[in-house]
Amino acid sequence: MITPVILSGGSGTRLWPLSRKFHPKQFINLVNDTTLFQDTILRLPKDTANPLIICNEEHRFLAAEQLRQINKESNGIILEPIGRNTAPAIALAALKFINNGEDPLLLVLSADHLIKNIDAFHQSIETAEKLAENNKLVTFGIVPDKAETGYGYIKANINNATDHYKIQSFTEKPNKEDAKKYVDSGNYFWNSGMFMFKASIYLQELEKFKPEILASCKKSCQTEYKDKDFIRLNDDEFFQCPEQSVDYAVMEHTKDAVVVPLDANWSDIGSWNALWDAKNKDKNGNVSEGDVILDEVKNTYTYSSNRLVSVIGASDLVIVDTQDALLVADKKYSQNIKDVVSQLKQDGRSEADNHRKVFRPWGYYDSIDADNGFQVKRILVNPGAKLSLQKHEHRAEHWVVVKGSAKITCGNKVFTLKENQSTYIPKGEVHRLENQEKIDLEIIEIQTGNYLGEDDIIRLEDDYQRRTKE
Question: Which of 16, 216, 243, 307 makes the best surface tag, with the fewest CB within 10 Å?
Answer without folding.
Answer: 307
